[in-house]
Structures are given as structure tokens and as C-alpha cells.
Amino acid sequence: MKLNVSIIGAGIGGLASAIRLAVRGHAVTVFEQSGKPGGKMGELRWKDYRWDTGPSLFTLPDLMEELFILADEEMKVSARYEPLEIITKYFYEDGMVINAYGDPEEFIHEVAEKTGERAGRVRRFLRKSKRMYDLTRDVFIFGVFNSLSTFISSRFLKAALQIYRLEVFSTMHGANRRRFRSDHLVQLFDRYATYNGSNPYKAPGTLNVISHLEHNLGAYFPEKGMYKLADELYELARRVGVTFEFETPVEKILLNEGVVKGVRVKGETRKSDLVISDVDIYYLYRDLLTDIPFPKKYFKQERSTSAMIFYWAMDRTFPELELHNVFFSSNYREEFRQLFELKGISEDPTVYLFISSKVVTRDAPEGGENWFVMINVPENVGQDWDSEIKRTRQSIRNKLNRILGTDVDKHIINEVVRDPRNIETETYSYHGSLYGNSSNSTFSAFNRHPNHRNDIHGLYFVGGSVHPGGGIPLCLASSKIVDQQISHHYY
To answer: Which pTM value belongs to this model?
Structure first.
């Protein structure tokens, strides 16, 4: 059966869905309101400098390679990537520096030598994070959460019977605090809660599965930068027959008695058998699904963090820095209290510094570097962001100057700033929250919007604001789930 499919949004989830359905022989059209593909994965240019503006870490590459295999192509021909020898370099206020090596044993040795933590404890933790991932991946990452079959499946029952292994009823920080003696190491592993915009002092210990993705499976980086991944998915989609209409926002999803009939674009009806939304669900329901009640239950949960990002063009290189660098706050608990309880920014925020020119040398001119300097900030609830930018810029510079022992200010020759306001307007992320709802409760995974509503035939959902969550791997997983659901419903 050949279906006429309309996809709203050319983010990673939308692109992946388009490829999957096109290779099955369906007629696929992607409508994108902006002028280019990628969604949150974009790029910024100034003179001879280029910055990736979205996700900056590449894990689980098999999920992306699978799309090329489906199209009978090889990803590494067009979008080559390599494993990172050092995934992240961590800097602490007391002078401690830890290199998170890509090789697990090298990382374990580094941590044991620097912190005094027993190597066996770290090794056991990495083994445990792998077991947690193996138990949960088919349920919480690739499972269908609005289907009874999921909850009576052998995979779910297996995970449920071993719930004691999943640290569900402990916070992430509590689990790590019991596990390690080193404050430095606890903070390092607590940081992974921020990968989906959550709070390690509230999120369940199950989130420690994220450590497995980096420290056991490894992290990678494309040789031409992160945006190249989105660009290559777009080109692959075109090669398998997907039609793209840019600068073409969808005005409404058309329904008739609970059945999708198409979309309205520029005042015209475009008939569709299926509609797949890669749009933040708040704006989807507010603007495109106005004929059905607004599902308030999905917006009562705590939102994920947003970001404040400074794109700095630097006129010199810093050999002591790596591709990914983290400068930790000296009071991590207070930083998260500010973010989630007070909706503010700590005086001493943790700073993430990403320098793609360390790998992609043409991203900056010779003798310069392109700094992507980011801190986690709360969702936009009306803060005075102009004042916050001014204050936080100085806090960040003070921190970098103090730890690096230099004056970074005099080497910044250009600056562009992003905050929750323009993140929301540019990416349609409600309140600027990068990952939709946070994972700050035991049952957060069960409360995410599903990939299909049983009461609307022909409508599916992908992207970071729905199950299983935000970030490249999870957005790709959402498209795989939807592909499986469509196959089940129509074949």
C-alpha cells in the first residue's frame, strides 16, 4: 500500500521518518517553516568562523547508519566520523583536571589516579550502567508507551522483575553518592542528568544509563562538524525521493471524525493518509490541532532546562583545551536549586566549552578558535534575560580566567548570544526548554507524550518533546518507533 505522507518539520526526527517511509515506497513531503533542514541542529557563520549551534556530541551512531543502510548506501562515504580519544576534559575549581578518555580502561585508570577512587568501583559502575541499558533500552528507548502490548511484553516484565537493579527509587545523585567516595567523581557522573535537561538531585538513578553511552560505547565526532549530519540526512532523503517545501509552515492538521485527512498549507488543502509531526507538542496543539481539547496533563510536569550560549570568535588557540570541556561549579547542588526551584542562574554556573575547530580545522582561521560557551539556564518564565546575560557573561569569564590562568576577554573578537527567548522563537521549543519535560520524577518516562494517539487515526509524533526524549539518539529512536507503528497499523 502506497501512502501519501506529510511530515511537519525537518528536524532530525522528521528527516529520519521521511527516509524510513520513502524507502518503503511511500510518497513523502516534508514541510519546514524555516529555510533549511536540521531543526535544533544548525550552524552559525561569521567571517572565517563557523559554529554548530545544536547538539555537539555524537553517540549511538548505529541509529543514523541504519538510515543509510535502509537506502542501500554507506554513511561513512558522505558523513565520515571518528571516535574521540578524549571525550571530555573536566576542570574543577580546586585545580583537579580529569580527562574522560574514550577507552574505558584508560578512563578508569585516569579517574583512579586523579581522585584516589578504587578502579574496581568505577569498573563495577560502568558494568552496572551497561546492565541498566540492556534492561531498559527495548522498553524505555524503543518501546511503544501507549500500547498495552508493551506492558505485557516479556521485555517489560523482565525489566519490572529486576527493578531493584534500575535505581528507580533513588535519585541519581543519591545513587552516585553511595557508590563513590570522591566528590569529583560524583559530580562528573551527576552531570549526565543535564543531557536531558534534568536535575541529578531529583531525577531517578536510572538516568545513570547515560554513562554507558559515552564510557562503554564511546562518543564520536563528524569530520565536517555536527551540522553535516543533518545536511547529509537531508541529501539522503532527497536521493530516496522525499519532497521538501521550505519556508512553508503548516497552518493546520485536518481531521474528520478522528481520522487524518491532510494539512492546510498557504490556505490550500494537501491531502494526506498520514501526518507525522516533528513539532514541539505545545505549539502543535495550540496552533495545528485546534479541533481537539488541549492536553493540559502533558504541560503540568516540570520543564527541562534551556541554555544561554555565547559564540565567541577567539584570535588565539588554547592547546590545553579539548573538543569538549566542562568547568564545574563549586556548588553543584545550589546551581540546580537555582535552576529548578528559583528559576534563576547561579553565581557560579557550570560552563560547557565546545571547540569544533579542534577537529574541523577550517571552522576557525589559522591561529584562532571557535568557542561555543554554554550554561544551563531555566525555562523562560519572564526573567530579565538582558540583565542575566550581562551578569552571567562576567561570571563565565571570571571562571575561565581563574581556571585557565589567562585573560580570555582580550582574545574575543566577536560575540553572538542565544538565550531562552530566541531559542524558543527560532526552534519552537516551548519556554525555550530544550528537551520538553524534564526527567525529575520516578515516572517521568511514562508521562511523556506518546508517538501515536489511539483516538486519532493517521497522526504520529517524533522529536524531542515526545517519547523517548530529546537529543540525537532519542529523536532517531522516535522515528524508528513511528516506522514500526505505521507498519503495524497499515500492513
So the answer is: 0.94
